């Protein structure tokens, strides 16, 4: 039995993810189940969402989970056991208006984890993707001109 340890991670900060994974592995030795559940979304017309915000959404919803997964994966492969779960979104399967950046990031994640599932079968590592329908998320009302506040976390 291990005492719980709180480790803070901003999944959109790709540069710190490997260090956090290393800290987790150093502390516990392994990860049996990795649940990727962090997400960011924004609502707006394609022409009104900046490329900067598109990239931030992609970092949080695609590059973040795959970077963390790739950091933990070698340990699972060496032990030939483990389970990786992606909590994604129904918008990873269908796109709806005013959610282009979010839907694109979720589509990309589904594609990655579908491929990973096939590749990990030989190592007895289970990879699952859960695509729930709409959920109520925390949302801040943005101040005028503050696009970051329009992000749903």
From TrEMBL:
Alphabetically ordered keywords of this record: NAD, NADP, Oxidoreductase, Signal
Residue ranges that the Swiss-Prot or TrEMBL entry lists as coiled coil: none
Pfam families, alphabetized: adh_short
Keyword field contains Transmembrane helix: no
Top-rank taxon, per record: Eukaryota
Molecular function via GO: oxidoreductase activity, acting on the CH-OH group of donors, NAD or NADP as acceptor
Biological process (GO), any one: intracellular calcium ion homeostasis
Annotated family: Belongs to the short-chain dehydrogenases/reductases (SDR) family.
Protein name: Dehydrogenase/reductase SDR family member 7C
Organism: Oxyruncus cristatus (sharpbill)
Name of the gene: Dhrs7c
